[in-house]
Amino acid sequence: MKFLSSLGERLGAGLRRSREFLSSELQAVFEPDRPIDEALYSELEETLIAADLGAPLAADFVNRAREEVMFGTVSRAEQLRPLFRRFLTEILAPAVQPLDLEHRPAVVLMLGVNGSGKTTTCAKLAAQLRGDGKQVLLAAADTFRAAAIEQLETWGGRIGVDVIRQAAGSDPGAVVFDALKAATARNVDTLIIDTAGRLHTKSNLMAELAKLKKVIERQLPGAPHESLMVLDAPTGQNGVAQARMFHETIGVSGVILTKLDGTAKGGIVVRIVRELKLPIKLVGVGEKVDDLGSFDAERFVDALVPPA
Questions:
Q1: Which letter does DSSP use for residue 6 in this model?
Q2: What is the pLDDT of residues 254-300, one digit of tens each?
Q3: DSSP string for 90-148
Q4: Beta strands in the chain (DSSP E)
């Protein structure tokens, strides 16, 4: 699929703030003439934690650096940079997985808290699939917010994709039921379902989402084919907690990271992969329709920690 090509140079531009934050801190650590001592290890660990890579990962890399120094494969501080790049690439490589859209209709359930960019991401994905020649349908299952329904309808009109909806306050399960019937009758390629991100309590939200998933499974065995958690990258550590909660209670097949261009702590991507063992299906680096693309581990590391 054309839209699944990586974002290339735009990823580098989108991660500028993260790169500047991390590079400025690491530059002092990786000075060529600096001795490798306890002060360096301590500063390196603090820098990685500050970049939202997390304390366990920071400790692991420092231990890796100590081992390489002990075995003689690293003797100068500047050699720690390529070692760090390899370390990140090894962690992120398993996270590169394509979307499962081979079914007809392929059902994509979008999950995430309000404000994460979920509704906009639904529209971006729909637009790119449509541009790739696919027939797409959107479902406005966030019936708790009239604004969410209106936003999705506005996007649908803009990108030329029909939206299945009901009035605000309607049963989300009924919307999903109607959308599945419409997707099957129209023989569309992909149905993308926008869901609620906030109810009165977290338990209510999870119960509602679990109900939606059961409606989908009953109407179309094997679906949803993707249950994607949309995460706002600038939320940092809170984003990891959100993803863990959704994954444990609903089941998540992958993560879509939005607003990578709005954070100085792109290291959160590494934490999500390492701690939750979830693939990064897509990343967003801007507001344009085409600012959504597949995750590429090597390009991401290049953008976050350049070779020199």
A1: B
A2: 999 888 776 656 777 888 899 889 999 998 877 788 888 888 899 88
A3: HHHGGG-------STTEEEEEE--TTSSHHHHHHHHHHHHHHTT--EEEEE--TT-HHH
A4: 106-111, 136-140, 163-164, 190-194, 226-232, 254-258, 280-284, 292-294
